[in-house]
Amino acid sequence: MRDEKRLNKGWLFHYGEVGLPNKTAKKAHALGGLTAPLTEEAGDRVIYGAGGTHFLKLIARGDEIQGLKNLAGTDFDSGLNQDWQTIAIPHDWKISQPYTQAPELLMSGSKEEGVGYYRKTFSLNDPLIDQNRIILHFEGVMRSADVWLNGAYLGHNNSGYTSFSFDISEMARYGDEGINVLLVRVDTTTGAEGWWYEGAGIYRDVWLEFLPLTSFNRDSAYVYTKELDGTQATLGTEVCIENHSSDTVEVTPVIKIDEHVISLGQQVLRPFESRTIKETFRFSSPILWSPEQPHLYTAVFQMETDECRKNFGIRTFAYDTQGFHLNGSLYELRGVCEHQDFAGVGVALNQDIVDYKVKTMKEMGVNAWRSAHHFASAELLEACDRFGILLMNENRLLESSPWRIQDLENMVKKSRMHASMAFWSVANEEVIGNTDLGSRVAKKLVRCIKQQNYESLVVSAELLNPDGIVNEDYLANYDVLGVNYPEADAMGPGAIKIKERYPERSIMSTESASYFSTRGIYKDDEEKCHCSNFGSLFSMILPGKRQPGDPGAGGTATPEKVLNYLSDHQYMGGVFLWTAFDYYGEPSPFGWPAISSQFGIADLCGFAKDYYYYYQAHWKKEPILHILPHWNE
Q: 252-269 b/e with 16+ CB inside 10 Å = b?
């Protein structure tokens, strides 16, 4: 059966370049240096047999080590020094770096970009050889990552928001062969993905997964809701079985959900064959998942050699000209947008911190969450499932380069069975949106999503213009047109004009508010970078203070204006407020020494600001009383 081993503890970290190891090699597993065991560690830098010994001595006058240097260019000089520190994963090295006053760094949190190295050793037992596949998983590394194992280059990952894996079954060292050495180089100087604070380093879990040779492909295992009909649900399922052995195997896979057992028939797989099996079945008297009752079922995929478990919810999503429908009923989205940093830890959030963030917003009355502007983490998906939050997952960019398509496909598969997965956003405020080029790219991205996910609605989060000019072919790609800040004076009547021209088009508000406020502050103060909770007069459009009512004064729109707009235009389906919490970077309306945003409904630490209670009073059934200081204080 499958098993796993966490690799989060006992890492060594070095900030700054240590001498970039080669990626190509003259001889296999012979790069040496920090990518292989050092003198004080168990195992040889390079493993070679009797023929290798003889040959290396012949070419170097009997000196094997010199022979490796001459033949393979093996690094025998690199080693550890006092600059390496012991750390645990998750880790964000940028959060501990000093702030730097530089205009080009202001939006991203006034922290310098850099390079860091991570090194980890681990041991494997002999019985694992040829009996298990060993997969090395990285849940998230910010940003450009290169990985070496045991003197060989494993590969590269571009994005800081995607998980990635390597099959190391054959490359690993077992038993007396010595320890395994893992080296990761992380580089944030290669170009940012976002304009906000993104952090740096291995900021999500790392682990080894031990799979039987005949196993389920976990990401392909999928149970989904096809239809709700009275007291029954029609569910679909598909799963891929992989035979990585040299034998023909016979298995009888089933899926167990409570008392239901779905047989997938007897399957005979040839050596190294993979097979996808699909079934449809009826499920009686389901308890439907919703934010008010987030009921989760567990699907157990089981056969003679393997078992894996995945939670899911039975529910349906739809959207029309009236708005969003959950389980067949009209449902108002009370959402927030959110980055993934938090005070003190940067982006290195564990499940407890993510749970705290989600529960804080849930208590305000939130029932929806937009992962802005990147793929949602496994921790966020898990929290939204359990606490009852409809999730909008978001692809980073409107690009269809091969590696981005591969990333999108992988992340859709990893997230698709989560009960909370209601929407996929293809991108955010792309300047090529509503163009013929954008339409061609969007078509491919949407197709990629819908080929893997049969339930979630696909939207875009679009830039508006006051004239409401859009590209019809571009809009046709989406289930729903998402518009940002439809209520804002700066956007004019753009959203209303779109609705007038395209009355049959489903529209939703994907981003609203961006309202300035500093917790506990009731007077604007530019020197201290403070915004009044009574209504700041600083503007994100023009410098300095403005007059009350001027466009952009106090942010993009006040909370009152946002909710009034929703009340008058309920076909927008609800709102996604920018943002749940303050975040590092984007310190508008201020420059240096401001280092974080003012947009949050709660501050960097998660403490509620005054307008938290305004939204809570609108969205919760219980009476809410919140007292502010007198405005003359």
A: ebebebeeeebebeebeb
pLDDT per residue over 10-53, tens digit each? Answer: 999 999 999 999 999 999 999 999 999 999 999 999 999 999 99
Q: Of 194, 154, 150, give the one whose Cα is nearest residue 172.
A: 150
d(CA 192, CA 413): 25
Distance CA(453)–CA(48), nearest Å, equals 47
**For residue 416, which of 207, 166, 218 has the smallest C-alpha distance?**
218
Helix (H) or strand (E) holding 186: strand 180-187
Give the containing element (helix H, strand E) for 444. helix 436-452
H/E segment holding residue 6: strand 3-6
Q: Let me know: does 121 contact 184? Beta carbons within 8 Å.
A: no
CA–CA separation, 531 and 526 (whole Å): 8
Cα radius of gyration rounded to whole Å, the chain: 27
**Which contiguous run of DSSP H or E holds residue 413?**
helix 402-415
What b/e sequence results for 444-479 when a residue is b if at least 16 CB atoms lie within 10 Å of its CB, and e otherwise? ebbebbeebbebbbbbbbbebeeebebeeebbebbb
Mapping DSSP to helix (H, G, I), strand (E, B) and coil, where does residue 489 land? helix
Which residues does the chain have with pLDDT short of 50? none
User: Exposure pattern of 407-438 as b/e (b: 16+ CB <10 Å)?
Assistant: bbebbbbbbbbbbbbbbbbbbbbbebbbbeeb
- DSSP-based three-state secondary structure for 403: helix
**DSSP structural state of residue 21:** P
DSSP-assigned letters across all residues of 563-592? HHHHHH-GGG-EEEEE-SB--BS--TT--T
Q: Of 576, 631, 573, nearest to 599 (Cα)?
A: 576
Rounded Cα distance between 201 and 188, Å, is 9
Residue 412 φ/ψ, nearest 5 degrees: -65, -45
The pLDDT assigned to 84 comes to 98
What's the pLDDT at 414?
98
Q: Is 302 helix (H, G, I), strand (E, B) or coil?
A: strand
Closest among 570, 575, 572, 573 to 559, alpha carbons compared: 575
Per-residue pLDDT tens digits for 110-152: 999 999 999 999 999 999 899 999 999 999 999 999 999 999 9
Q: What was the pLDDT predicted at 548?
A: 85
Residue burial 118-132, b: 16+ Cβ < 10 Å; e: rest: bbbbeebeeeeeeeb
pLDDT at residue number 544 = 79
Would you state the pLDDT for residue 633? 57
- Give pLDDT, residue 630: 77
Q: Indicate the DSSP class of residue 602.
A: B
Residue at 207: amino acid letter: W
Nearest CA to 366 among 397, 342, 335, 343?
A: 335
Specify the DSSP class assigned to residue 50.
Answer: H
Q: Are 277 and 241 in contact (CB under 8 A)?
A: yes
Q: What distance in Å separates the CA atoms of residue 244 and residue 229, rounded to the nearest whole number? A: 41
Q: ∠ CA 382-387-418 to the nearest 5 degrees? A: 35
**Is residue 441 within a helix (H) or strand (E), and if so which, with residue range?**
helix 436-452
Which residue type sits at 241? I
Note whether 250 and 241 are within 8 A (CB): no
Q: What is the distance between the alpha carbons of residues 125 and 112, in angstroms, rounded to a whole number?
A: 42
